[in-house]
Write a structure and sequence with these properties.
Layout: H1 2-19, E1 41-51, H2 57-70, E2 79-83, E3 100-106, E4 110-115, E5 119-122, H3 136-147, H4 160-172, H5 183-193
Antiparallel strand pairs: 1-2, 1-3, 3-4, 4-5
Helix pairs in contact: 3-5
């Protein structure tokens, strides 16, 4: 009898612990994220943020080529983030400006990003061709792929380079290799990125 009571108490404690991470709608902001969750982990990615207008020639040319590839016209305000360790690949080895960066917080069901821009992305967001193809969710997927060791442009545009890196990541992590960042891929990116 004592063993059954002990098991029941352990199960109740586990359920209580799990329930504290369940997201409820926040009626003040129409958000589906909890206010009281503590981040499971945080990572920082250091680099340089340019707008298309103020980017060095090499950065601008590479971004324009990517835009041409996916059939869009570059916006003068488009942001391009170059991680510190990739500056040389753009021919900017002597670049001396002050670096900035992004902090990524993972809460289990969503990510919060702070830095040059601040946003939140749910793990239920689908990023990929015929899904979300630009904006903050793509930016986050690119940052996480970079944190996992993949070299790629962080420009918030889902093109062939990002698609290829997502597929490679999925293949290396025993996920369905479909090139779409969905819940399982987000969760695995979160896990691998903070190792």
């Amino acid at each position: 009898m004592l063993k059954k009571v002990k098991k029941a108490l352990i199960m109740l404690c586990c359920l209580f612990a799990l329930s504290s991470s369940i997201a409820f709608a926040d009626t003040e902001t129409n958000s589906t994220y909890t206010k009281t969750d503590k981040a499971l982990w945080t990572i920082h990615i250091e680099g340089y943020t340019f707008t298309y207008d103020n980017a060095p020639k090499q950065v601008k040319e590479k971004y324009k080529a990517k835009c041409d590839e996916i059939g869009i016209t570059p916006s003068s305000k488009s942001e391009i983030f170059i991680p510190v360790d990739e500056v040389q690949s753009y021919g900017l080895k002597d670049y001396k400006q002050r670096a900035n960066g992004f902090d990524i917080y993972f809460y289990g069901t969503y990510f919060k990003v702070t830095g040059q821009k601040n946003y939140t992305v749910s793990t239920s967001t689908l990023v990929g061709y015929n899904k979300v193809e630009s904006g903050n969710p793509v930016h986050l997927a690119q940052l996480l792929l970079k944190a996992c060791g993949y070299s790629l442009s962080i420009d918030s545009q889902f093109g062939n380079e990002t698609y290829t890196r997502v597929r490679s990541f999925q293949s290396s992590n025993n996920l369905s290799v479909d090139g779409i960042v969905g819940a399982r891929t987000w969760e695995r990116l979160a896990y691998v990125a903070h190792l």
